Amino acid sequence: xxLDRKMxxxxxxxxxxxxxxxxxxxxxxxxxxxxxxxINPNNVQSIRQALGSATDEDIAxxxxxxxxxxxNRHGR
Length: 76
Hints:
This protein has one domain. The chain is globular and about 30 Å long. By secondary structure, the chain is mainly alpha-helical. 0% of the residues are buried. The two termini are 20 Å apart. The protein is 67% helix and 0% strand.
């Protein structure tokens, strides 16, 4: 998955349930237990706010972190 501004805008257009399901799906595909994320109706707005305030540099950094994690995870 490559995160860019267009993808971020699509995520922000999702309702809370869709956004939560998407995040949990990406986590599961990455080998992270979605239950450990602690996403609930009380904090999904904070997640949405963080995504909405992400700069292009933040997005690039997240992509790098995600790729490193995926590479290390698959290398095990």
